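User: Second chain of the day. Same drill as before.
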Amino acid sequence: MEDFQLLHETNRYDDRMFPYEMYCVNKKDITPPGRGYMDLHWHKELQFTLVTKGTIRMQVNGYEYHLASNEAIFINCGFLHMTTDISEDGEYVSFNFPEKFLSFFGGSRMEQEFVLPYTTNWALPVTILRQDIEWQKQIIDILWELKDAIRNQDLFGREYFLSVKTVEIWYILIKELSKTAIKQPDSFLCKKQRMQTMLTFIHTNYADNIAVADIASSASISAGECHRCFKSLLHTTPKDYLNSYRLNKGLELLSNTELSITDIANMTGYNFTSHFISSFRSKYGESPAKYRSKRKV
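Assistant: Same format as last time:
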């Protein structure tokens, strides 16, 4: 639980009377400062992310999602996520706001029937929004409106406009989700919670010499149950996921630092540089040195 709290992002709103923020992200910068690119985190806020340029790849609770320009993703509150890749020209905006923003007032019928049943349902971590489905296109169009409006300080009733449009998005979303959403059994939710705990452990301890038994222990389950959780939810093994995550971090360090390959190997949990090099070549089809040299061209 302590590791999970370390990954918690607290949104610090400029206006506490209007807890709503839009983060603008590219490969080099986040405005206003926040967490996102190659930075695993979670927050209590709901999030809609709109890709405004290029392509991105996001990970939510271990699953990878690829998004292109003019596509979007909804991420429910409390789920571990990060952007794992942004194209060189890539940009996106993320709208973060608390669920109470949709409830009108605490204890309302809107909150009890149309907000909490969806924000507390672990079966609904993510919804991908694309242009070829009409209701999803409607949401994307409104996200573009929000992007323009939030920057327009002269817009009459700006906060009210943003509020109305955000509730409109939510209404479209839950109207569609209500047709297919199924409350998952407690056993499934328990498995999802265990998975989140284990992913948090991996993402905060990958540089150390950890084994599958350590990953399982973080969620107070056996190594066998750990293996079953990863296979059923992520379709991989805990060992393969750990190695893949280490290599992703190595790729980031190769791209953004001048550290030696030996240092990068040590920092990503590899005891031997040769093991890092062979694993890197197996996953990416070239050596770390060749990858780095191509990036400098």
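The longest helix spans residues 158-180.

User: Great, on to the next one.
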